[in-house]
Amino acid sequence: MADPSECPAASGGLLPPELHAWMLMRAVTGAVEQELRSVVKERLDVSHDEFLVLSLLAAHPGQALRMTRIAELLGRPKTRLTYQIACLQHVGLVNRRSVCGDKRGIEVALTEKARRLLEEASEALAETVKEALGRSMGPAQCKAVSALMPDLAAEKAPE
Asked: PROSITE patterns this protein is in (predicted)?
């Protein structure tokens, strides 16, 4: 992984500051995802994209989400999501069911097995993210993210 001090400065050259900040943020999240992939595979034995589905469902405990909503939230094509959900269902991590009153609608929910696996793996996954962010975010990235969301940065600033 690149040393954050070697990353481009907060100035984006031809890019407006917001677009440059977005690109720096994407680079950081890409670096984190790259490290997370191996931990996800080792701990949960699923792909990174399948992990994103599980994480989204875990953020809504006790609820089922419609497939269309999952695809929308993850920015995934519905056909690709259908395959991922089938794989997760095959290994017993999600359940699918028809939406009551809508014969075309499908809802997806975590199984107890998935809840247990996520609980067991969550500490290692969180630590991986924390360490990867620490390695990949330097002052330029922090400044760029603050520039992208100045209102949020002001709200979060210590008083």
From this structure: HTH_MARR_2
Q: What is the reported pTM?
A: 0.77
Residue 79 phi/psi, 5-degree rounding, is: -65, -40
d(CA 76, CA 41): 20
Ordered by start, the domain boundaries in the chain are 16-133
Quick one: which of 145, 12, 11 has its CA closest to 156?
A: 145
Q: What three-state secondary structure class fits 8? A: coil
58 in Cβ contact with 46 (< 8 Å): no
pLDDT tens track for 99-131:
877 778 899 999 999 999 999 999 999 999 988
Q: What architecture is domain 16-133?
A: Orthogonal Bundle (1.10)
